[in-house]
Write a structure and sequence with these properties.
Elements: H1 13-24, E1 30-32, H2 35-40, E2 54-57, H3 61-71, E3 81-84, E4 99-102, E5 110-114, E6 119-123, H4 128-135, E7 140-141, H5 154-160, H6 167-170, E8 177-183, E9 189-191, H7 197-204, H8 209-223, H9 225-231, H10 258-261, E10 270-277, E11 279-280, E12 284-292, H11 295-307, E13 312-317, H12 318-325, H13 330-333, E14 347-355, H14 358-375, E15 381-387, H15 390-401, H16 403-407, E16 415-416, E17 423-424, H17 430-443, E18 448-453, E19 458-465, H18 470-489, H19 507-511, H20 513-526, H21 555-559, H22 564-569, H23 571-574, H24 593-598, H25 605-621, H26 626-635, H27 640-651, H28 660-669, H29 677-680, H30 687-698, H31 706-712, H32 714-721, H33 725-732, H34 735-745, H35 758-761, H36 772-777, H37 780-783, E20 786-789, H38 793-798, H39 800-812, E21 816-819, H40 827-831, H41 835-853, E22 859-861, H42 864-871, H43 873-878, E23 887-889, H44 890-897, E24 913-916, H45 919-924, H46 928-938, E25 943-945, H47 964-979, E26 987-989, H48 992-1002, H49 1009-1019
Parallel strand pairs: 2-4, 3-4, 20-21, 20-22, 22-23, 24-25, 24-26
Antiparallel strand pairs: 1-2, 5-6, 6-10, 7-11, 8-9, 8-10, 12-14, 12-15, 13-14, 13-18, 16-19, 17-19, 18-19
Helix pairs in contact: 7-8, 8-20, 17-18, 25-28, 39-49, 44-46
Amino acid sequence: MLPALTYEHSIDPVVLSYLDALEDAGFSGDIERTYASRLAVATDNSIYQQLPQAVVFPKSVDDLILVGKVGQQAEFLQVSFSPRGGGTGTNGQSLTPGVVVDLSRHMNQILEINPEEGWVRVQTGVVKDQLNDALRPHGFFFSPDLSTSNRATIGGMVNTDASGQGSLQYGKTSDHVLALKAVLVDGSVLDTEPMSEADVASFATSSGQAAEAVAVTARVCREKRPQILDKFPPLNRFLTGYDLKHAYNDDLSQFDPARLLCGAEGSLAFIAEAKLNITPIPKARTLVNVKYDSFDAALRNAPVMVEAKALSVETVDSKVLNLARQDIVWHTVSDLLTDVPGKDMQGINIVEFAGNDEALIAEQVSQLCARLENLIGQQGIIGFQVCEELDSINKIYNMRKKAVGLLGAAKGWQKPIPFAEDTCVPPENLADFIVEFRQLLDEKQLHYGMFGHVDAGVLHVRPALDMCDPDQEKMMKEISDQVVALVAKYGGLMWGEHGKGYRSEYGPAFFGDELFTELRRIKAAFDPQNRLNPGKICTPLDSDATLVKVDGVKRGNFDRQIPVQVRDSFKQAMECNGNGLCFNYDTSSPMCPSMKVSADRRHSPKGRAGLVREWLRLLAAQGVDPVTIERDLMEKSPTVKQIMDRFRNSFGRNRTQYDYSHEVMEAMNGCLACKACASQCPIKVDVPSFRSRFLNIYYSRYQRPAKDYLVAYVEDYLPLMAKAPSLMNAVMRPRWSKSLTEKMLGYVDMPELSVPTLMQGLDGHHATRFDLQWLQALSPEERQQYVLIVQDPFTSYYDAEVVRDFVLLIEKLGRKPMLVPFKPNGKAQHVKGFLRQFAKTAKNTADFLNQLSALGIPMVGVDPALVLCYRDEYQEILGEQRGAFQVVTAHEWLTPLLKELRAVDPRENEEPWYLFAHCTEKTKMPNAEKEWGAIFSHFGASLKAISVGCCGMAGTFGHEKDKLETSKGVYQLSWQPNLATLDGERCMATGYSCRTQVKRFEHIRMKHPVQVLLRLVSTA
């Protein structure tokens, strides 16, 4: 039986006292002390893991000031802090054993946009793409680009001095910072701006840590100017943290403290606000995607692209391309990166030209294309394609941006990992540098992936290692040391883009002893007690504190404590690499609605995967094998003793006992089981899959709520209720009945059964007369005229008009519909973790559908989520026992049929129909919206797919009282604002749950596309 789980990492009493004092002082933000909250920020996109003492989420600059001021009390001087934004760092920059100060949850407002003067002022929790979405209507964008732009915050960009694609023209983040509002460790505020020597002298006379910091840093940067200029190589990706070289301008007339803070990784101050210059959006943009037969050829050919005066040259190797081919992202770019017949595409260069002179851009593109045309078959070039449509350009870059996560999807436990992946050498040395780098890795027989910014000499090289293997962990350190030497040989830097973090130990080698001493002097001026992100970049002068090291504690150290067979069984949680794509801020993205509405990292695929990994580790520490528990639960009914124990643990003396499983349960309970993560995540972290397994095991120790049983067996009692639907609706409709349902069962806004029922609506119709033996007697040719409609419980019993209209549509299209007798689907059982019951349901239904499949007649369902359950959850629970039956969605059946049907002329001047596709349908079938559009076009109508995420209903999720506010919040993210601008009569939704949600909040009955098609066909 599952035991109660405790952990060994309690919070330091001093920190607990500090948090209480902070609250008493008027801190208005959130303070989180739970183990789950701490675990959620114990990892980032690196290989490291460091559990913090607590997490605080300030709401304002005043809150940040309080963090510092309260911490200055004598009894709290040992408390350390680390700022955190999106948690996308690849080198553990924000990981700390102290207190995490997370600015992303609340301090994420765009404060002021001034297009006339070309600047914007933001709180530093603002996400980069969020900022660009706000700037776009004004014709501007924030130009430093990075692959994690949809979840990386401005604060994180400032703290790592981030850059990316286009840096040759656009530079790094620090090149765009006009001013910063920084809060120092003592709570003093430093508002940076370029300062004259007189300004520096005047400011130095003021009080507080900020005054001391400015005086010392200005003196160091002025007095050591010759050594600084002599030491730092003239690279586009110049040395970050602390940027001594650019703190003064060339004639030493201005000192800018912001240059020291950019790239400081929170080791000098908290960055609360930033004033940034903004760049006009180019009027003309064109991509030339050049294809090569080897990656070396792509690297060596890149200077030709740079010479062509391109804005940027990005490169991707065959490893990343092949992983992209297996991902949902390839559906968007396959026509933009077509294969060359008879050639093997082993690398590409993505060459962008952009600017405001459209004629000049066209001429530059034309000249490059002419040159490439002459070079095909030479220098490894096998072809090229030109992209001029903005939508196509964005698709290519989205694929390139996904490269970081895609590498984590490599098969096996050896994963390409970051630790030496943003080296920077002069571009002319890059190809030779990479030859030696590859030789180094090949000698160790390692696989690796490569992509990056060849124009700037920055390439992301990620060797595949298993960090659960102690020998490979040691190899990682050896490789890291060797790469440091190799970078130095070619006149480069170990970090050209992603900051130092746990690579801080290499700082002295690159700065030299003299300048590194000056860095320590600056650190002491800002943070004398070494309390801000201690161990990163440098330590205070005269301190015996040490720097963090590359071989610091890694996630693999914890993962290896989980038995191999358990790791293999729970791969969907174990393989999460922390890339954080599930933090995507875009409200129209289907990825993880619970994270979007809660702003709580626990309620994300990454957070849930991390909590489950720790759950598995704690089970292993107690000698418990969850795989064995699962097998027993699947094979045996609970004993009387087990039932009694469940009641004791839930309601008896054990109910107050701490159990880490409750914290995992809280995170799992907020999951909508929409399955967007299963396809949108590059690693395919499938939360609904391991969530159902966790629930199954969790409820072997604790008693389930009654409402779960109601949902799990809904398909059994619905046919009985449908025998008297008017009576059932009359009983459920009164206010007292709704109140009773809410109080006793925890359900709200329950839908009414369809009246008339499906059978009544089809009364006398031959579609209701299903006869298997009669069908078997038909010839194969005769069977091809039939269509079997596979019912689902919700559409058939609550939205029967849809099924009825689908029957009529099939007839209009010249086919003979036949309604298959209702068989439970079982998806609700899977969602609630009734896996033993779900396995039984799935087996019975699969056997029946396999019997029908032998007829060779198409089987079609109208609700995409339940159709997809046959493919995913059935395969997962049954394996080979599932059989080969195939149920398709309406659009999958209609698409190949179009070639047999007469096309209808376009309807002139008719408003388009608007499609709100089910999130599971969009993510599991990425061509669905396009295919619906082609179907409508064939029948003379125009269809526009509306970009929305989850509607918030998600089966029965939105009907549960404790989830009502979450459901409403998710709905308000993208569905409500889009519906508010459209004619509801022309809006369609493929999902039953989506139509229910809209009916609840908007009082609109949205149509299923098949109902509109029936109207179109009838009037054609």
